[in-house]
Amino acid sequence: MNDFSTTYIVQGALWTLAVFSIVTWALIVIKGIQHAYVSRRDRAFSRKFWGAPDLSAAAALREAQPGPKARLAQAGFSALAEPFSGSPATQAGTHDLEHSWDRQELLERHLRQQIQKERRSLESGLAVLASIGSTAPFVGLFGTVFGIIHALTAITHSASASIDVVAGPIGEALVATGVGIAVAVPAVLAYNFFLRRLKVVNAELDNYATDLINLTQRSGFRIAAPASISRAPDGGASSTAGGNRAKSTDKAFA
User: Fold this and answer.
1) Contact (CB, 8 A) for 169 and 67
2) Res 133: pLDDT
3) pTM score, two decimals?
4) Which of 65, 68, 110, 119 is the S-S candidate for 79 at Cβ 3.0 to 4.6 Å?
């Protein structure tokens, strides 16, 4: 291998590391903004949701820029508005698998699917950070190997093996390894940080989904104002949800 091709290999490794560094810092900025936005929107929606007088008022909340919790609530309330097995809509002829769920199963299914969508959105870019963090040192080492080959070839042509002749070219060759490590460290730290943030957000969504199921269970998995509860002939309140059986709401949504 001639000196010309070796030099270009080393330069190619350094340029690759430069691209890795640009991508890493771009993802750090983008993911940082994304998580800051998610935290701010979720806190704002939580205050409005838990400050609502009843579940119907909470269902009427509309966010101009909804965050994960707001989208999760919208998915849950939309599920409760769909026809279900035994409803007039299904009895009128809508008999298919999509509407064969009871209300709690339908709610849990929609919440679980929405949590997965939010997780995929927050996971975007993490695979790139992980790949850069794991491969950048090896790209730098690859450049160092060919840099040393180039240095040894130059030493051979100089017909001298003194420390003055050896130290300079070998030191320059080791720069690629140092650059590779410098690129990998921020990528690994950012990956670990955002992975931790992802787990925190996912746990918060799980908890919120469980709370939402518990709240809707109290109203028979229906969103209605108190006036919609009919009175039985004997004076007692008769809820339209009496036919639904109770189920455990502590399912895992992860």
Assistant:
1) no
2) 95
3) 0.73
4) 110
